[in-house]
């Protein structure tokens, strides 16, 4: 990874030096899965559930800031800490779960890109999946020119998503007063409001983001001193807050568009049918009928930008996960190819066999998997960032620790409720064969017991003395160090990071 030189003066240039990681992370909260959930929430409840989006992104800001703080303070990302802390069997389980999370997050992103290509160029869905994989590899090729180029490319795609939906929202003319009320007055009225609220929160579950953010912040050349680490943490919090605020505005715009279109008393019967069950594909027809062909094209462009930016960051997260848990030394292009192929395979198979309807169902399954996966990244993160041995004086304050754990357990509880109610509903469904229901119950019950036991272990496990010692040694050294591999510049990082080429980039010319 190329290290970016931090400019000390003027202040705006210093802040600009830190801009990038938060925007790469924020695109996961704008992926096609989120867009679909937002569209359905707006169609069903108008602006009533906007406060859920606000709460979800506030929680995302808190945990993402903890992830960034872990990387800045220790020079290691989350997967590396997991490898140091847990025994091999647990470590391999966490690695496999993290890889599954990357694949699950990638499914709606790849399918969303394929739908966008289909809308714009009438390419078959399966063909769009292949093109999505190819174009993602081309974007990731920007890494060879430095991390800043990739950050700029993703930032542009985020602005494209926001610009397209804001343009459509301006034409849809939602009520500003109703939007403000929906954001700040909590309500859960109407049929299915609780279900849709949980789905909105579930769509904001991005466990791979916690691994990614802690790794991306190590791309900045930060002296390993108390003041430098504290200053960097402060600037990364500001940068993450700005990026997630933009993500919030875009999510609000998406909910508002479908809320305005579907609540129109003069909507045609065809539009009302589309509003009953919005998918990434049917949303295009809805906007075309309600606002005109141009809005459908803008929607497709935003979907394409959303899918491409999200798949890039998902592939990037997969690289760090593989590197941190397994310490695999692979060339950059090969890591990209392996990660992309692993992630794209399920989407391609489902699209070939099930077509667009199968792809839409796969997005729902992916959201359930992400809800299932979140605690296995969140609990280790909260344990590590509240550890004096690992973080030294940079550990989370008591107030932040309590708030993080409270929100974390609330999120886990909501996810478990979402999972259990969905699974029980499927098992007890009258359309499901009785034999299938019995077999599903026999399989699901032990899995849930194992799931609870694993979470309990991660929560109460005593800290490893070996990893604590190494963390303490790092944080008591307040002088900048040089990497022992002989590469110039930078602070002393983990062995996996030493294998990377270090390139000092002047932010003024990046």
Which ranges are low-confidence, i.e. pLDDT below 50, for 5 or more consecutive residues? 467-510
The count of strands amounts to: 3
Q: pLDDT average, as an integer?
A: 83
| Highest-level CATH class | Mainly Alpha
Rg, Cα atoms, Å: 22 Å
Task: Please describe the biggest sheet, giving its number of strands, its sense, and whether it closes into a barrel.
Answer: 3 strands, parallel
- Termini distance? 15 Å
Widest sheet: strand order? 2-1-3
How many helices? The count is 21
CATH architecture: Up-down Bundle
Helical fraction? over 70%
Shape: globular
Tally of discrete structural domains: 1
CATH homologous superfamily classification: Amino acid/polyamine transporter I
Q: What this model shows, in words?
A:
The chain has a 3-stranded parallel sheet with strand order 2-1-3, with no helix packed on it. The protein has a single domain (10-263, 270-484), classed as Up-down Bundle (Amino acid/polyamine transporter I), CATH 1.20.1740. α8 (147-172) packs antiparallel against α15 (293-326). The protein has helices at residues 11-18, 21-26, 32-45, 50-74, 78-85, 88-121, 125-140, 147-172, 176-184, 193-203, 207-216, 226-262, 269-276, 282-291, 293-326, 332-385, 388-391, 398-427, 434-460, 465-476, 495-498, and strands at residues 4-5, 220-221, 505-506. It starts with a strand and ends with a strand. It has 510 residues and is an all-alpha fold.
């Amino acid at each position: 990874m190329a290290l970016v030189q931090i400019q000390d003066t003027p202040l705006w240039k210093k802040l600009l030096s830190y801009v990038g990681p938060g925007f790469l992370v924020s695109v996961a909260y704008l992926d096609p899965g989120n867009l679909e959930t937002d569209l359905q929430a707006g169609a069903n409840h108008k602006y009533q559930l906007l406060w859920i989006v606000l709460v979800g992104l506030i929680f995302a800001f808190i945990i993402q800031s903890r992830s960034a703080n872990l990387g800045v303070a220790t020079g290691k990302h989350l997967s590396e800490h997991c490898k140091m802390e847990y025994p091999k069997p647990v470590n391999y389980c966490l690695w496999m779960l993290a890889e599954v999370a990357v694949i699950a997050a990638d499914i709606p992103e790849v399918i969303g890109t394929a739908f966008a290509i289909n809308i714009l160029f009438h390419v078959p869905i399966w063909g769009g999946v292949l093109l999505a994989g190819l174009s993602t590899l081309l974007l990731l090729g920007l890494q060879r020119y430095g991390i800043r180029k990739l950050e700029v490319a993703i930032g542009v795609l985020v602005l494209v998503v926001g610009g397209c939906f804001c343009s459509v929202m301006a034409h849809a003319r939602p009520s500003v007063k109703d939007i403000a009320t929906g954001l700040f007055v909590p309500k859960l009225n109407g049929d299915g409001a609780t279900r849709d609220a949980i789905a909105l929160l579930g769509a904001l579950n991005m466990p791979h983001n916690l691994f990614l953010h802690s790794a991306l912040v190590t791309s900045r050349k930060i002296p390993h001193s108390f003041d430098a680490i504290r200053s960097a943490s402060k600037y990364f919090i500001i940068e993450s807050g700005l990026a997630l605020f933009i993500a919030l505005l875009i999510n609000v715009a998406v909910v508002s568009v479908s809320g305005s279109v579907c609540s129109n008393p003069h909507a045609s019967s065809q539009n009302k049918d589309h509003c009953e069950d919005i998918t990434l594909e049917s949303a295009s027809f809805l906007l075309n009928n309600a606002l005109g062909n141009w809005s459908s094209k803008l929607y497709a462009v935003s979907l394409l930008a959303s899918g491409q930016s999200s798949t890039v960051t998902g592939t990037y997260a997969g690289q760090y996960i593989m590197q941190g848990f397994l310490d695999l030394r692979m060339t950059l292009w090969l890591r990209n190819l392996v990660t992309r192929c692993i992630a794209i395979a399920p989407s391609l198979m489902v699209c070939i066999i099930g077509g667009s309807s199968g792809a839409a169902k796969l997005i729902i399954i992916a959201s359930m998997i992400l809800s299932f996966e979140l605690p296995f990244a969140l609990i280790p993160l909260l344990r590590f960032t509240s550890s004096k041995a690992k973080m030294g004086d940079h550990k989370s304050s008591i107030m932040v620790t309590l708030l993080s754990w409270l929100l974390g357990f609330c999120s886990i509880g909501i996810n478990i409720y979402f999972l259990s109610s969905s699974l029980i509903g499927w098992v007890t469904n009258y359309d499901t064969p009785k034999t299938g229901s019995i077999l599903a119950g026999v399989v699901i019950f032990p899995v849930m017991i194992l799931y609870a036991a694993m979470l309990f272990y991660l929560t109460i496990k005593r800290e490893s003395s070996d990893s604590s010692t190494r963390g303490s040694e790092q944080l008591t050294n307040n002088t900048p160090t040089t990497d022992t591999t002989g590469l110039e510049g930078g602070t002393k990082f983990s062995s996996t990071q030493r294998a990377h080429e270090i390139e000092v980039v002047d932010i003024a010319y990046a």
